[in-house]
Write a structure and sequence with these properties.
By secondary structure, this protein is α/β, with parallel strands linked by helices. Helices cover 49% and strands 15% of the residues. It is globular, with a radius of gyration of 29 Å.
Amino acid sequence: MAHAPPVVRLALAYAAGVASGLVGAPWWIAPLALAVFLVAPQGASLRPATGIVWMVALVVGWVGAELTAPPAACAPPGATGHQATLEGRFLASPRAGSAPFRRSEGCGDVTVVSADPEVRAGRPVRVVGSWREGRVRPWFHATEVAPGAAGEREWRWRSVLWRDALVERLGRLYGDRAPLVAALTLARREGLDPEMSDRFARAGIAHLLAISGFHVGVLAGGALALLALLGVGARLRELGAAGAACAYVAFIGAPDAAARAAIMLTLVVASRARGGPPARWGPLGGALLLLLAVDPRSLAGVGFQLSFAGVAGLVAWTGPCAGFLMRASRRLLPRAAVDAVAAGVAATVATLPVVAWHFERVSLVGIPATLLATPLVALALGGALATLLLDFAWPASAAFLAGGVGVLLDGVETTATVAASWPWASVWTTPQSVGAGIAGVVLAALVARQPRVGARARRVLVAVYAATGILAWPLLLGWQGRGTLEVVVIDVGQGDAVAVRTPRGRWLLVDAGPPVRDLDPGAHPVVRALRARGVRRVEALVLTHADLDHIGGATAVLRSLPVGAVYDPGLAAPKEDLVRVLATAAERGVPWRVARAGERLAIDGITIDVLHPPATLPAGVETNAASLVALLSFGAFDLLLTGDAYTDAERTIASGLPDIEVLKVGHHGSDTSTDSLLLASARPELAVVSVGRGNRYGHPSPVVLSRLERSGASVRRTDRDGTLTVLARDDGRYEVRAERALGSDAGR
């Protein structure tokens, strides 16, 4: 930052203050961070006045984030199914059942699902329904939609009405392809097939459907190329490209992300056109400062981060990328195509860390897929905009041109489909790994600022440090908590999956949760949870019984990670899913072993004693009745895993149980399990219920919750707390941590 313009340093300081406020850091974190920076070698030469300005910017950013926080009444209630009434307007018509909805009174946006075909975007409405817990954040299920009261500033919604009208025109022009065209041109994804979205994500070109900053970059690159063909000078070309980007954003109704990208690009171009020394980062820093001053909390938005990263990539790397492509092609490629492709690649590379952080997926074919898709997208984008313009004056000509655009869209879809079909097309990552890589880059940048480090060595340092950070993270996870037992009750919805890390860092898995639609085994929640903890191998996969909510993810685990052996009760159940797991284990060479009462598995200081089912099973026994029940012991710490066993099975083992610290409640809290005799004999201190949010079974049963309360056990539930982690010591002490809730609860 020593050579960055002052406005950039000021903007970054302000953004750091905003970020600290958004994550809930206390106000004194800002001056503390500044003090640490000032005493560091790179900050020691700063003048005191400069440090004071930075500290003020940090504190002002923190105050801005706090003052713009939404009212407490805006937060959805914790209990799913809670009835409520929302006032506001849809930002898009819910043609496919759902759309973003902007709530009144500064409560922000939420996804609303409505089956009412008469609902239209931009009109004031009142929706009645209930809150539901989503994978990322709560959403609202509307059962009734009624007209609302019009506001005083109706003109603010004209852009929403205009954009919705454009979507309707695209529906008439492109038919079934309209959702894809709307995503490419208007950044509206309502109605887009989820399978198509997944293909684009696996191919690494999901930004074509979601990142409006990329759209602006592609359009600006196309305008630059066209003006270059016409012989326009460099400065006028840049001004023309910025003007084309602004006109495009205005025409599609100025969606937030596209508007931000256009503002930043315009400021950069305006600065370069002054006639003085070319300025790149100053205008970008000014845009960041301006946009955060208007709305500090926008920094937390994925769209804001992607827009800023996309434009920053355009500013930093479009020129070098275009030069590399020209040299690689020996200047045989037309400059127009090179500029368009360079803009797309630059935006893709710059947004890669943001995409990996938020969506936890990195495409290994993203760059080549982008090289193939960007020219097609640039042409399709221009053609689709032309059809929209022509449709106002000459509908027949617009329909004819739409047929040609359809050919380009087929090419884009084919690129995504072929790239996504390769098994190694994409890999799942974790925010922690992304953070480790970013930390490596920052550290390399600080080291590379030494005067003796040349340009080539600087690039090598950045690559080495980033790779070191990414590779070191799993090693740190492997060493973390050595000597303790870790039990992770993974939030898989209505199902069971319990991962166990031994004191020496080896992992076991009891059940694997229900299946998911995603064809990528690495996308399964259980696989992702294991990889997030640095798991490279599962020593034993224990399947308590053959029901789908317990074995549905076993195939994904077997295909994603090496597994030492599979254990189950050995009940021959005529279930297709069990056959699939058996076939996958055989294909991978994983041995399959029967575990019944009397069997013991000992590993790294822990023991797992199988208590049920009995050695001989009666004919025709049901899968739940034959469910495996096991006692896991680590010194004085005991955990009882009950699967879906019924109360009669629990009664047969109750008399032989010691006092246990943790009970994994049976059958997701159904009243068919968790018998009073079991609770009286085992006297658990903590009861963990693995259950889905808003499940149709009514789990956990109020009867069971009452039994647990009377027994004195503390109850934690995955539907409310998310994934739960128990860290235990061999003296019986333990603590519980919830991923969704901050803090931890200490055991005895």
